[in-house]
Amino acid sequence: MSLNLFLQNVANGLSLGSLYALIAIGYTMVYGILRLINFAHGEIFMLAPYFLYFGVLIFHLPWWASIIAAIALTAMTGMLSERIAYKPLRDAPRISALISAIGVSFFLQNLAIVVFSGIPKSVHRPAFFTRLYRFGEIRIQSTLFASIIVSSIFLTLLLYVVYRTKTGLAMRAISTDIETSRLMAADVNKAISITFIIGSALAAVGGILWGLRFPQLFPTMGMIPGLKAFIAAVVGGIGNIPGAMLGGLILGMTEILFVAFLPAVSGYRDAFVFLILILILLFKPDGILGKKVQEKV
Amino acid sequence: MKKQNEKILTILALIVLGILVYLAENNLDAYKLRILNLGAIYITLGVSLNLIYGFTGQFSLGHAGFMAIGAYVTTLLVLPPYYKEMIYILEPLAWPFTVIHAPFIVALFLSGLFAAIAAFIIGLPVLRLKGDYLGIATLGFAEIIRIVANNIPRVTNGALGIKGIPEFTNLWWSVGVAVVTIYIIKGLIESSYGRALMAIRENEIAAEVIGINLTYHKVMSFTISAFFAGVAGGLFACLLTTIDPKAFMFVMTFNILIVVVMGGLGSITGTVLAAFLFNFFLEYLRPIEAGFNIGPIKIPQIPGMRMVTFSALLLVVILYKQKGLLGGFEFSWKGFFQFINKLFKNKRSSEGSTR
């Protein structure tokens, strides 16, 4: 493989990985606080590009306004799903909340089929997003830059919120011990809502960038990226935000490079991803950046 | 009540079930039979998942993968060789599969056996994990099985799938397998092994301290569970008559998990009820999307509305019945007669008070 081709693949891997990272944040934050695998997160991700599509097509909004509206609406859906389906189950067995998450996932997916129809929609991308840049032999689409730059901006912003503000402090405190933080007068409900808003907004950004990169929308498009992003969160150490980012990048890179180096078995790409996941779980169950929790008797 | 009498009652109940199956097979149309068959297959799947998750407490999300193994093994065994040669268009079928042929019952047994072998190999390393991590790892393995099935067209016909599988599955088979599954798993749970499994569920460390071999029991439970999932997969293939890897995505596992949790974890009775209700509602909500009238208001035909209603229903049930429909309740003849007695007494006492 020539160096140029390799660099091209690295660039692709980075851009795919940054999208996974954006989605993985939502999984990892929710798991950190509620110990819940939010299976509906992939559907939240799917809603955003649809909102964008309809914003531009039906309401004739300009692109920037449509993008903002799509992110806001998606974040709201995420928050509402928590209020309706997860909050009443906070003291129930954890499996009930998981079933509820699966229920929300089915619901949103089928609602999307009813409202948006099951026929795949192709996104009309503005010229800006289809421009190609050439660096010698390497050709890079502008969405690739966009995904890397936009995700870096949002991820920096997220790190600031979580580690430098009072809300972030509350969120971290709750993820350590929900009861004690309640005693310390942290507003648990508010912090959880904010967690869902942030997670869903980041998934929305990821979804929009995804829609611009792979311009075809269908109601089940969130399933596989959602599962992959979840794997990324586990690989990085679930509950750990920098871990989710790292896991996303590793996963994106692995996927692209696997196909690049072993094109003959490219069909096994996803199987390879799962194999890595299982190996990491077996040898370092808390993920790459996760902390080891000592089990008490 | 004496054990002897309970046995007689159980046999009587089975005879009644047999008569019902006979009546259903002869009187119901193909559509209704299919729903009942699916319900029975879901009972097998649900009860087997309940063994590993509900009774042993090991969060396994691998059922779809074991089903896939079972479905392909059965399909390759029951299809006549000349037909197999015809349908593998893209790439010819690999050698041993071109000649093998077996009756349905042998195929089903081998389906379970292969699924169990896969579970044994997967379970040995993976069952050391706990909680959600175990769930994710088993989900990963199930997806790997599916992806492999997608990529070996010389065995599975790849993404095209296999069509025209003989429709061997009828109520005798599906209900029969469900009854056998319940019988074996109930027997297992009531044995000393079952006590050990439940001890592991309640507290792994305590169980280990009193001398229960964790790996042995967990792997045994996982393997047996996978065996029945494999058999159910075989029944599933011969009911739908067409299979492809997509049918065994993780959504399939979610469906089974929903049945188990909805019925109440650790309750076989609950699983049976939930498996039936799940398939019943899934089908009988169809009129909703066909369009109907409420008085003067005309509801147009909306495709997809059935699943929206179904998932909303699911959410409502889980929000209000957090421990499942039956919440760990188990049917027993003793409880049944106590219940009847109580009904009878209440009636008498209320009659007495009115006098």
Automatic annotation (TrEMBL), chain A:
GO MF entry, a single one: L-isoleucine transmembrane transporter activity
Keyword match ATP-binding: no
Subcellular localization: Cell membrane
Primary residence: membrane
InterPro entries to which the protein is assigned, alphabetical: ABC_transp_permease, BCAA_transport_permease
Any Pfam family matching the protein: BPD_transp_2
Amino-acid biosynthesis found in the keyword field: no
Listed transmembrane segments: 20-38, 50-75, 95-119, 140-163, 191-210, 230-250, 256-283
GO cellular component: plasma membrane
Protein name, entry field: ABC transporter permease
TrEMBL record, chain B:
Keyword match Cell membrane: yes
Organism listed in the record: Candidatus Sediminicultor quintus
Location in or out of the cell: Cell membrane
Name used for this protein in its record: ABC transporter permease
Topology versus the membrane: Multi-pass membrane protein
TM region positions: 6-23, 35-55, 61-83, 104-127, 170-189, 219-242, 254-282, 302-320
GO cellular component, one term: plasma membrane
Main localization of the protein described in the UniProt heading: membrane
Keyword set, alphabetical order: Cell membrane, Membrane, Transmembrane, Transmembrane helix
Family matches, as InterPro entries: ABC_transp_permease (IPR001851), LivM-like (IPR043428)
GO molecular function: branched-chain amino acid transmembrane transporter activity
